[in-house]
Design goal:
By secondary structure, this protein is an all-alpha fold. The chain has nine helices and no strands. The protein starts with a helix and ends in a 6-residue tail after the last helix. InterPro entries: SWEET, SWEET_rpt. It comes from Corchorus capsularis (Jute).
Length: 260
């Protein structure tokens, strides 16, 4: 019963994780539409790509790790697409930063880690080493939105902290915590519990500041509408004055000699 239950939970975990990985699609639609990344940060996508690659490696080395491989392969593909869009639509200094981070983390660090583990670590200890690295990276992945949370507190706006990303991060961490308990995998459990805590914190932050963001937007719209109204009133006033100035001239021309 336990293996069957863990497999079902793993399937559910795959679905939720893919939804989690796909949640920034709405954000990147805006990026493509505006042709600018604005204040969005590439760091979460760089760290998530590295994390998914390490966990794919973990899945290949772990017996029965098929579900770990599939979900992280899907995640890695989506992160690669997001980073590519970042490179296309970000300003030059952010493009340079993105390339540097991608090379350092997803080529240099990843390649070095895999090479060292396969060549220098005994086969019996490889899974544990990969699990420790994967757990550390997963914690970093879950913690990377802290940069955005700081911006939310500073600006009192949730514009750059999409709710769906926070929600699916929480759900993703919660379902994999259950899976980790069922299969007794401490390397999956530790970062997943961390994700539950940080995901909860993000949603609490969102609930605090989302109304303030709406109020600010309404104020801006009201100011624009008020300005437009003033422009209409001034234009109408000008037209009225022009009409008043033209009227006497027309009367004088049509009725010469009449008293004013």
């Amino acid at each position: 019963m336990a293996p069957a239950l863990s497999f079902i939970v793993g399937i559910v975990g795959n679905v939720i994780s893919i939804m989690f990985f796909a949640s920034p699609i709405k954000t990147f639609r805006k990026v493509v539409k505006k042709k600018s990344t604005g204040e969005y940060e590439v760091v979460p996508y760089i760290t998530t790509l590295l994390c998914t690659n390490i966990w794919m490696f973990y899945g290949f080395r772990k017996p029965g790790g098929l579900l770990i491989i599939t979900v992280n392969a899907a995640g890695a593909t989506l992160q690669f697409i997001y980073i590519t869009l970042f490179l296309i639509y970000s300003p030059l200094h952010k493009k340079v930063k993105t390339v540097k981070l991608a090379i350092i983390f997803n080529i240099g660090s990843l390649g070095s880690a895999i090479a060292v583990i396969l060549l220098l670590v005994h086969r019996n200890k490889q899974l544990a080493i990969i699990g420790i690295i994967g757990s550390g990276l997963a914690i970093i992945m879950y913690a990377s939105p802290l940069l955005v949370m700081r911006m939310v507190i500073k600006t009192k706006s949730v514009e750059y902290m999409p709710f769906l990303l926070s929600f699916f991060m929480f759900m993703n961490a919660a379902i994999w915590t259950i899976y980790a308990v069922l299969v007794e995998d401490v390397f999956i459990m530790v970062p997943s519990v961390t994700g539950v805590v940080l995901g909860s914190a993000q949603m609490i932050l969102y609930s605090i500041y989302r109304n303030k963001t709406k109020v600010e937007n309404q104020v801006k719209i009201s100011q624009k509408d008020h300005g437009a109204k003033n422009m209409i009133e001034v234009s109408s006033y000008k037209e009225t004055l022009d009409e008043q100035e033209q009227k006497p001239a027309n009367i004088t021309c049509n009725r010469p000699g009449s008293p004013v």
